[in-house]
Specification:
This protein starts with 6 loop residues before the first helix and ends with a helix. A hairpin with an 8-residue loop joins strand 13 and strand 14. The chain has a nine-stranded mixed beta sheet with strand order 6-7-5-8-4-3-10-1-11. The protein has a nine-stranded mixed beta sheet with strand order 16-17-15-18-14-13-19-12-20. Strands 2-9 form a two-stranded antiparallel ribbon. The longest helix has 43 residues. It has 844 residues and is of the alpha+beta class. The protein is elongated, with a radius of gyration of 33 Å.
């Protein structure tokens, strides 16, 4: 036994074992390092981007609230300004700042800017940091059409003091003159501040407020005061602390951010399998060296520690590289795509990357831990082998006998399938993610049996090189299974994501076809909540020549809980004889019984938020009063992740007296072209600059382009996982080729040429790649079922139809098989380049 307390001895042993392998095969080490580094880098980048975006958004909300202890917020339609004096005089309120807050579309652009109407003098009491350094401009702000821009907005628009800001208001475009720019530290949000009375006039919101910020007197408890206020606020108006206000808005993107984090961990998970396969095959090659160490007195524990030191060094170096690369990727992504990676959740926030040392340390440790996990099983197996057995030639396959049992893998798969049926935890599908991890682990444990089954059925071929390749694979199914671990993990996840995204995209395309039945669509501003058509404009639109029928819709919002984003209320008319709008319903439609409340139709998200189903009675705050409605059906909606409620427009107008509309669906008379009708519309309206006119094809193209941009990062993460898997294939074939140098030497002695050996290796790569593709397709399909029907449903609360994109899967499968074939040939070049006598010298 070698004394474990002598570092010099152990250092020499490490140099002879793990260190020697590093020097002898640096390429394999580089591949393992790349696998860990890439996994850590993706995890770091995604986490930093998500954390920075949410942090900036929370800071933006906090900056608007200033020193306020509570924020009273109404729906998009706002609440009567008569509420303000009641709250300002309430006992316990030290100061109150009323505001009208709207998201206005910028003229000539496809984005919005937040316009905040404030009472400057009240705001100085509650939000002094916003205006304190702009006191000189406050008198200008009281003049008509004057605005203060935040520094972020001024930079984004390229406008300074004396410039102009043009925004949509109704169907018009209004011009605001820039009286000054706020101090850079006031807020990072892209925002314009105007006088509250001017904001009400410009945007047609006379008598309305959207929020009141309350600064409480010393000693007043915010939560207790909020509960008191709830009893006097109009229905649909909520009160919350600024922190809760930020959390409510950030919650909308939580599922998206969590899914990206999970995808990044998948890359790290795949990197661990790369370490596993690399270490296992490397240890098989060095089994005689390790057995000699055991013979001279190295204990099993010492040997395991030596090998884990090897893996920990790989993890340390790979994790360091990954952290550095991840920070660089995060900087690049925020600069190019924004803090939400192009998804549109935080588009109004000028995100700045914040590097959190704790997060970097966490992913660094994860990289090291995953490396150790990947190396633990090979190390334990190497230490378990008897030295006498390990010193024998041809022991490689016998060393893997322990991984032959399929029962544990099947049991883990069964547990994963059962776990996939569990409900979400905290509104997130944690059990679904766990189910996918168990399916992957179980499938990898079953892989040796599957490889044995598949390889035994290779076709009989007369060509000598192919016959030898088949015999070699059939004799070593366990080694093949280890090589397949990386392929299976990465390829199956890639397949599952392609199926999920393909299903989502196809379902979206089908949904758009059903939701866009008209010939032409007219909107008073594509984005924001300030565009609308007045009654007189609606009548003028309906009279335009060539328009056979015009259907006008009104969109508003309703708060159903103070910790949830508001639902979108869509008022659309029912056609004569219709009892329900033509929506893509999921499940039965219900005809309310006589005397039952008025029907409404809820999207899947809204039904989940309100925890109701068809035929239930639901209470919604419309017109400032809680009203009862019958849930007459639940429909699929991909446009509003916060949830939507459809109500008959006639009912909506009777309740609210709001006859304005946001958009119009136009059905054209026969023979009238959309371009011709669009030209007539622009000519028939007094102000048409703010109009958005589009055909169904154009809207569908825009929607699918947004979808593709949103999933661009997902595609990148998938490609990274596959690259890590291909690294594993390369490392596996390289290790096996080097371990078979004597075999190649014997084949050369008996007359086989290098070309024939290359052909044999190509056949082996083709066979292994094909087996991996078949297994990956099966497992990927199974995982896609969990993604589509469990994770997607629990994350975003909408359903989709399964659609398998055979073309994309075929190209991917063919590419992987070709890559495996070429990798096998390239990896065998070094072994084939040795002299014949040198290759067989170890057997003499």
């Amino acid at each position: 036994m070698i004394a474990p307390w002598r570092p010099a001895v152990l250092t020499s042993l490490w140099r002879a074992s793990a260190g020697g392998a590093w020097r002898e095969h640096p390429g394999r080490l580089v591949l393992a390092l790349l696998g860990i580094a890439l996994g850590v880098a993706l995890g770091v980048a995604v986490h930093l981007i998500n954390a920075s975006a949410t942090n900036e958004f929370e800071l933006a909300v906090r900056s608007l609230a200033g020193e306020a202890d509570l924020v009273v917020r109404g729906p998009r339609s706002g609440f009567p300004e008569s509420l303000y004096p009641r709250l300002a005089r309430a006992p316990g309120v030290a100061a109150a700042s009323p505001a009208l807050e709207v998201d206005a579309q910028i003229a000539g652009r496809r984005d919005t800017i937040k316009v905040l109407g404030l009472d400057s003098f009240r705001a100085l009491q509650v939000q002094p940091h916003l205006l304190l350094e702009s006191r000189d401009a406050l008198t200008d702000l009281l003049k008509p059409r004057q605005a203060l821009l935040s520094a972020a907005a001024a930079e984004d628009l390229g406008v300074g003091k004396g410039g102009e800001l043009r925004v949509h208001a109704g169907s018009r475009v209004e011009t605001l003159h820039v009286a000054g720019v706020l101090a850079p530290g006031a807020t990072r949000q892209r925002m314009a501040i105007v006088d509250i009375a001017e904001a009400q006039r410009v945007f047609g919101r006379i008598g309305d407020l959207s929020r009141i910020d309350l600064k409480l007197a010393a000693g007043t408890q915010a939560e207790a005061f909020a509960r008191t206020l709830e009893s006097v606020l109009p229905a649909g108006t909520v009160v919350a602390t600024p922190e809760a206000e930020a959390a409510r808005n950030v919650s909308l993107s939580r599922a998206y951010r969590t899914n990206l984090d999970m995808l990044a961990l998948v890359a790290l998970f795949t990197g661990a399998f790369l370490v596993f396969s690399t270490q296992f095959l490397a240890l098989l090659r060095r089994r005689s060296q390790l057995a000699l160490l055991r013979v001279i007195g190295v204990t099993r524990g010492q040997l395991v520690r030596l090998l884990l030191v090897d893996a920990s060094l790989t993890g340390l170096i790979g994790s360091l590289l990954g952290v550095a690369l991840g920070v660089a990727l995060a900087h690049f992504a925020v600069a190019r795509l924004g803090g939400d990676l192009g998804a549109g959740y935080f588009s109004a926030v000028d995100a700045q990357l914040h590097v959190d040392p704790a997060a970097l340390a966490t992913f660094f440790v994860l990289g090291v831990v995953f490396s150790l996990i990947g190396a633990a099983l090979p190390a334990l197996e190497a230490a378990r082998r008897q030295p006498a057995t390990a010193l024998k030639a041809g022991d490689e396959e016998e060393a893997l006998r322990g991984v032959q049992r399929a029962a544990p893998g099947l049991a883990i798969i069964a547990i994963g399938l059962a776990l996939s049926q569990a409900p979400p935890l905290g509104d997130l599908p944690w059990t679904g993610y766990a189910a996918i991890a168990l399916l992957l682990v179980g499938a990898i444990l079953v892989m040796p049996r599957f490889a044995h089954f598949a390889l035994a059925r290779l076709p009989n071929v007369r060509r000598a090189s192919a016959a030898l390749a088949a015999a070699q694979l059939q004799a070593t199914p366990r080694q093949v299974a280890v090589a397949l671990a990386g392929i299976l993990a990465s390829f199956s996840l890639m397949v599952s994501m392609i199926i999920m995204i393909g299903s989502f995209r196809e379902s979206l395309a089908t949904w758009l076809d059903r939701m866009l039945p008209a010939d032409l669509y007219l909107r008073a501003g594509r984005l924001g909540d300030t565009g609308f058509f007045s009654e007189e404009e609606q009548a003028r639109i309906a009279r335009v020549a060539g328009i056979e029928r015009a259907v006008f819709l009104r969109s508003q919002s309703v708060f159903v809980a103070r910790d949830r984003p508001p639902l979108t209320l869509i008022a659309r008319p029912l056609a004569p004889g219709q009892s329900a709008p033509p929506l893509p319903f999921e499940g039965p439609r219900v005809e309310p019984a006589a005397g039952a409340p008025t029907p409404v139709w809820l999207s899947e998200v809204a039904a989940d938020v309100l925890r109701v189903s068809a035929r239930d009675i639901v209470t919604l705050p419309i017109g400032g009063v809680p009203r009862h409605f019958t849930v007459a059906g639940i429909w699929r909606d991909y446009a509003r992740q916060n949830g939507a409620v459809v109500i008959d427009r006639a009912v909506y107008v009777a309740i609210t007296r709001d006859r304005r509309a946001n958009e119009a669906w136009l059905y054209l008379a026969g023979g009238v072209a959309p371009d011709e009708a669009a030209a007539r519309l622009r000519a028939g309206l007094v102000s048409h600059e703010g109009l958005e006119i589009a055909t169904p094809r154009e809207l569908k193209s825009i929607s699918l382009a947004i979808f593709d941009r949103t999933f661009a990062v997902t595609y990148a993460l998938e490609v990274a996982a596959v690259l890590i898997g291909l690294f594993g294939v390369s490392a596996s074939f390289s290790a096996q080729a080097l371990a078979r140098r004597r075999e190649f030497g014997v084949l050369r002695h008996i007359g086989m040429t290098r070309r024939q050996i290359g052909s044999m290796l190509a056949f082996e790569g083709l066979a292994v790649g094909s087996v991996g593709v078949v297994a990956g397709l099966a497992l990927g399909w199974l995982v896609s079922l969990v993604l589509v029907h469990v994770i997607n449903r629990q994350s975003f609360h909408w359903s989709m139809d399964m659609h398998i994109p055979w073309g994309e899967l075929g190209v991917l499968a063919l590419s992987l098989v070709v890559a495996a074939t070429l990798t096998a040939v390239v990896s065998g070049r070094r072994a084939m380049s040795d002299e014949v006598t040198r290759a067989v010298r170890e057997d003499w």
